[in-house]
Amino acid sequence: MIAVTAVVAVACGEYFHAVRTARWGVVIGVGLAAFQVLAAHGSPGWGHAALIAAVAVPALWPVLAVRPATALADWSAVTLGVMYYGWLGSHAVLLRELPDGRDWLFVGLFGVFATDSGAYFVGRSIGRHHLAPRISPHKTWEGAVGGWAGGLIVILVLRSVFGLPLSGRETFLLALVLPVIAQLGDLAKSALKRSVGVKDFGRIMPGHGGMADRIDSLLFAVPVLYFWLQWV
Question: Within this chain, do residues 88 and 103 fall inside the same structural domain, yes or no?
């Protein structure tokens, strides 16, 4: 919980810096994002309270700051940051607290890492056909297939290594879907960065950008894995 809270707080701060949120908006937003993660560790009632706060509290900031002309933009930017990083990120804690949660968290983490690595190396080696040139000009269909294959293989291997209670059909279905979700998360972040005119949200990892740039795929994949386990 502490580790996820720290990661979410740093990533959320990078996001607010990129979208040029005022100082009080940053303080409110980072605090609310951390609250989402902390609430995930408590009772369901705390989780509901955190979601209400994520929408209601940012609405008060433009009013108190007397900025009616930018109220919608301010409210939207802060709430998006809280929900995107805080609420989505809190599912890492929820996943960890399930039965076999540690093993499932490793499946999510390493499945996404394998997807990212496979897409990068295959795309660099044989990528020719652009996947979404207006969003991310360097991503290719060949890289997407390579990333999907890498994630699929790692998920299937980890299921056997950890001895997780899934049938072969259930495991294969998960391995088919999760790498695709991870790549959609990567594309969504690329679109967000283009809309605010930045290459990366941060610089704390030379050559890789910031924390927000590193967890983009995880923010989509981990919640999907959590709800998949709950429903399937």
Answer: no
User: Does pLDDT of 107 surpass 80?
Assistant: yes
Can you give the pLDDT at residue 203?
76
Q: Which residues span the domain enclosing 105?
A: 99-231
Give the span between the Cα atoms of 220 and 112, in whole angstroms: 10
Buried b (16+ CB within 10 A) or exposed e, 178-187: bbbbbbebbb
Q: CB within 8 A of 64, min separation 6: which ones?
A: none
Q: 46, 70, 94: which is the final residue of a domain?
A: 94
Q: Would you state the pLDDT for residue 221?
A: 95
Domain boundary among 63, 94, 125: 94
pLDDT at 47 over 80: yes
